[in-house]
Amino acid sequence: MENYSFIIKPATEKHLMYAETITDEMAESAKARGTGIAKRSPEYIKAKMQEGKAVIALTKDGEWAGFCYIEAWGHGKFVANSGLIVAPKFRKFGLATQIKNEIFKLSRTKFPDSKIFGLTTGPAVMKINSELGYIPVSYSDLTDDEEFWKGCNSCINVEILKSKVRQNCLCTAMLYDPQKKVKKDDMALRKDFRKNIKLFERWTNLKRYILLNLKKTKNKTLNLF
Fold it and tell me: What InterPro entries does the record tag this protein with (predicted)?
């Protein structure tokens, strides 16, 4: 395995050239996982770069390696770190964790009083969020900003979201509240989850199995989700 050195920093107008590559990889990644994400255009990604609301990772040779951006909802009461993506050749190097750490810091700087939330189907992202101090929450704890939820209309799983009256879907909701100081030893999830990503994988697989079979069964256990 090669050793790569990454430069991770806030994106600017200098990085607009990478916007189309980023959106293409977001779409390909979602397709490969068989899960949906709200689609973003290159123009949208460029706007985030120009607003100083994004983090980009490059190799020392200037090759694009990863990206993540900030969205604010409910007049800034809620912030989401969205669109986390790592180029395929640079996965398995811990780059996603580094990018999440940087976008989290940028979010706390720009929106120090905002709650930071995430919706994800990715076990690795759940683990990273947990380490940052996010806790699993119900969908009702997230923003009620209609513009945010409109973004789910381009997700392949939007019918599941609608069938659950926007109270659940394949994504797991997680929230960081700056007003609630969480001790390092008490962060987010049970101790057995903290270093064992397979437990996150089991959770997402269970949720997928139940919700994707929603139309095939009327089992009352569905009411638990």
Answer: Acyl_CoA_acyltransferase
CATH code of residue 80 = 3.40.630.30
Query: For residue 84, which phi and psi values (nearest 5 degrees)?
Result: -60, 125
Distance CA 172, CA 128 (A): 13
Please report whether residue 195 resides in a domain.
Answer: yes
Q: How far lies 181's CA from each of 133, 176, 194, in Å?
A: 9, 10, 18
Based on its alpha-carbon atoms, the radius of gyration of the chain, rounded to whole angstroms, reads 17
**Range of the structural domain that residue 163 is part of:** 6-223
How many structural domains is the chain composed of? Answer: 1
Alpha-carbon torsion, ordered 163, 164, 165, 169, to 10 deg = -110
Angle at 135 between CA 130 and CA 139, to 5 degrees: 125
pLDDT band at 24 (very low <50, low <70, confident <90, very high): very high
